[in-house]
Write a structure and sequence with these properties.
Chain lengths: ~160, ~375
């Protein structure tokens, strides 16, 4: 009976949705349950600012529904650098090096985002290093993909 | 658009101190809830790593919290059952024991004063030993009269102390949900700052209470080692009682010191040097505490200037007495974090503008099909 407490449980639709996200694709159901307890969900309306350029970065964002545009003022004119679709991750640079945001994120339409707070991620490094290393690997892959994109379209690559 | 990284200004600081004083004043009126709440917080930060470990091994949070709390209660119950016969025997002759230790202390004081009188004619002329012993004997008579109401008071407190494990269980089980609930209640514009605030409050409280536990362990073992070397019986129990009393700044330390001296003076009535050694040991441990242990444990948690800490301890004592002394540092730590964050948010024009913009968008969305 006691051992039954540790038996794998059926994965809930919510955890299945998390598992489908690029950042958490390598996590086991038990690891997903731990991460799920740390994630926050936020709803934004079209044109609502998610974060500003130059602001302190405290969290990483994952698009669950809708679209998010990444903008930057170039020569005094706001330019859309990228559009984030469901499953995309943004705000990751600030998460890694605690630096100010490099661009503004704004809801391109009504959207729902999962938010992973920086300090929760840092405490995962201490308490659940295995989970944190799996997520870190996925973030590194995101950054590698972005670096690769630099060679294709340099002006859209430095957005976050 | 950069976040304001400056520390709180004088207005915010005045607000922080005023709110801390108001809270201390209010909290002392409901100590029956505050004390179990504080004990529950200590228990929560002690047991949280165990719950996290079980969750990581695949157990649900509810199950892990229940298992850890049941395990803790079972261990406490077993320890209590083992100690009960000895405790009952001690309580049976509790009154005579208190009188014996009071008498031992009085004897030591009288002997020390007579020694001083023999060396200082001024003190001998003033008959300082006779006057002091007479006064203390009268006080001692009153003291024994107060023991029974004191014991009754402690017995009346016991049920509310049972709240502590109950509260700790819910902190363990629902702490994360509560944090998310608070986060969800905050507008999008302030969300990241609020997350940081909640994290900081949690970090401050965790560091403070874990520091307090570490300090208690260090104090217990240092005092116990010293008393054991001196040959005082029950050194570990005595060290633990003094370490717990030290949770109350100043007064707790004095009471702890007095206890050690009374025990040394009573158990070694023919060797007054033992009582003086006990005083020396206690002063040494207090110095070790203030300059070495405290900065290593609690001092790290609050990031407060030492002058502010000392002044606020006195303010806490003036506003709310002994409970104020005990509560002032954790309350100030939490209020300081909240005050500084609110100060940053309301003085950041960009955040306020974003919030107004989001409200306008929501109003427009709500009335999109209602315009004539």
């Amino acid at each position: 009976m006691v051992l039954g407490l540790f038996r794998p449980k059926p994965v809930s639709p919510r955890l299945e949705r998390l598992h489908s996200l690029f950042l958490f694709v390598n996590l086991t159901p038990a690891e997903l349950a731990i991460v799920d307890a740390l994630l926050h969900e936020r709803d934004y309306l079209a044109d609502e600012v998610i974060f500003d350029e130059g602001e302190d970065g405290q969290a990483i964002y994952i698009v669950l529904e809708g679209k998010v545009s990444i903008r930057r003022d170039i020569d005094g004119k706001p330019m859309v650098l990228a559009e984030m679709e469901p499953g995309a991750v943004f705000g990751d640079v600030a998460l890694l090096n605690n630096a100010p945001r490099l661009a503004q994120a704004r809801a391109a339409g009504p959207c729902r985002l999962a938010v992973f707070f920086r300090e929760d991620f840092m405490s995962l490094l201490d308490t659940h290093a295995r989970i944190a290393s799996k997520i870190s690997l996925q973030i590194a892959r995101t950054l590698a993909n972005r670096l690769r994109d630099v060679r294709i379209a340099p002006q859209t690559s430095q957005h976050l | 658009m950069n976040a304001n990284h400056q520390g709180p200004g004088p207005v915010v600081w005045a607000g922080i101190i005023a709110v801390t004083c108001l809270l201390l004043f209010a909290l002392q009126k409901m100590l029956w809830l505050v004390v179990p709440f504080l004990l529950a917080l200590i228990l929560y930060y002690m047991l949280r790593p165990l719950v996290q470990g079980l969750v990581f091994r695949g157990m649900g949070r509810d199950g892990a919290s229940s298992a850890v709390m049941l395990g803790f209660l079972a261990l406490t119950g077993a320890a209590f059952a083992l100690m009960l016969p000895r405790l009952a025997a001690q309580l049976a002759d509790g009154e005579s024991m208190v009188e014996r230790y009071m008498k031992g202390g009085l004897n030591l004081l009288e002997r020390s004063l007579r020694l001083l009188e023999a060396k200082w004619a001024l003190l001998a002329n003033a008959q300082i030993a006779d006057t002091m012993v007479h006064r203390l004997n009268n006080m001692g008579g009153h003291f024994t009269e107060h023991i029974e109401p004191l014991a009754m008071g402690i017995a009346a407190w016991m049920p509310s102390l049972l709240l502590a494990p109950f509260l700790a269980f819910f902190f363990l089980r629902d702490g994360g949900r509560f944090k998310r609930f608070l986060g969800n209640a905050v507008p999008n514009a302030f969300f990241e700052r609020t997350l940081y605030l909640l994290h900081d409050v949690d970090r401050t409280a965790r560091a403070y209470f874990q520091g307090l536990i570490e300090l208690t362990v260090l104090d217990t073992f240092t005092l116990a080692a010293g008393l054991w070397l001196m040959g005082v019986p029950g050194a570990l129990a005595l060290g633990f009682i003094c370490a717990v009393l030290a949770w109350i700044p100043y007064i707790g330390s004095i009471l702890g010191g007095l206890l050690v001296v009374l025990v040394a003076a009573t158990d070694f009535p023919d060797t007054p040097a033992m009582a003086y050694w006990a005083i020396t040991l206690f002063i040494f441990v207090r110095l070790l505490d203030d300059f070495f242990y405290m900065p290593l444990t609690i001092g790290k948690s609050l990031h407060m200037h030492p002058l502010v800490t000392v002044i606020m301890i006195f303010v806490g004592g003036a506003v709310a007495g002994v409970p104020g002394l005990m509560l002032v540092l954790p309350v100030l730590g939490v209020v300081m974090v909240i005050g500084a964050t609110i100060g940053q948010i309301v003085t950041d024009p960009r955040l306020m503008a974003r919030h107004r913009h989001a409200r306008l968008l929501r109003r427009q969305q709500a009335s999109v099909d209602l315009t004539p």
